[in-house]
Amino acid sequence: MKKTILVGLITAAFSVSAYSQQQPQNTGFENWETISGLTSQEPVDWSSIKTSDGGGIINGLAPYVWDKSTDAHTGTYSVKLFNVTAPIGGIIVAGLVTNGRVHAELSGTGWVYTDTGNEQWRTSLTQKPDSVAIWVKYTPVGGDVAQVKALLHTGSAKIPDAAQANWIALAQIDIPNTVSTWTRFSAPFSYFNSTTPQYILFVVNSAGFSAHVGTVAYFDDIELIYNEPELDLTAFLQGPYAGSNTMSAALNPEFVPLNQPYNVSPWNYSGNELVPAMPNAQVVDWVLIDMRDAASVAAATAATSVRKKAAFLLSNGSVVGMDGSTKLTTPFTINQNLYVVIWHRNHLGIMSNNALINTDGVYTYDFSVPGNIYGSNTGYTELEPGVLGMAGGDGNADGIVNEEDKNSFWSIFVGTRGYLSGDYNLNGNINNPDKNDIWLNNQNKESQVTD
Fold first, then answer.
1. Which of 111, 222, 224, 302 could potentially form a cystine with 27 if both were Cys, beta carbons 3.0 to 4.6 Å apart?
2. Is the peptide bond before 43 cis (omega within 30 degrees of 0)?
3. CATH number for the domain including 129?
4. 307 with 194, same domain?
């Protein structure tokens, strides 16, 4: 029977806050409980045809089609399902367990459903997994096909259901052949719409539409798989821009730090991204990527941020991960639209003007294209005709280029070298070009990123 709802199992590293990928309880079938009136235990958070909603008579007539097995993929137990002949009517009944509840009638009509009004028969899930996986051993008879179905849905839903009422996504694993050793099977979720799910319903059985006596299946370690989406981002900084879609990497390797620099105000980012050495000679600097989930770009305020991630910016404008070459990956879930903000330590932050589209797991966006940066041109600069970039000169990172950025971050450090906020052209030296070429030209520019 179902007693609990959800647990977050996987905590992502390098996160601002914990990001848990939702997994249902007891998917390894390690926990079992004694049910009043039954001679066999049921796995906790799962139910069988003998705990259906059909009442005492139907449940009493229903055969036992499951057992607790010590033949396990991991841990101590798995669930064993098998097909038997019903004591009345001679109907062959397939082994079945579900995290929902079985609806049974004397006529033979039946289905499996989520009872949203009773936490014993429902499993909440509000994320969108990519696929489901399970470990199986199987000995079929007469062409039987074992099946695992996982349904994401809102409200009440059942399997089967020709109307597919409240269905959001379905994953189905079919096992048609003998599997003598523990083998992993998986299937992707097919999404029917973009609605955020409320529940997940599993049906695990030893035979699909037909069943033969003697078929036996073992199931263990069900897992929802969440593939980390990739961000394929392009952006340029005004300071080191050298023309023709390239930037100077003059700070690398002498001055670029090996750990991300955004763990201070105003960013206060607690991620622990670091590298033992600069992974690529083309690394220009660190940037901080801020992912926001909102209905519109105007609504993409700081409160809608779902994930932040420090990354490297290469001389060709590519934003990459810690290996210095591949696209940025990080776990996050978007329920509305994804808008991305790029922060830099002394350039004005920018935000995507358009929602990023997920294409085969990759979100691609080029901030250098005119029209792709949110707000007026007071928040960015045109580096050359047709190429936009982040405006430099914001030494205190308050989102405005003004006198303080000259007086407190450039003037008092003139003639020094290093990884300094007043080095607006990012060449490692604080001198007149930082003031005259960058700060002076950007006075009164202000970031258009919404607070």
1. 222
2. no
3. 2.60.120.890
4. no
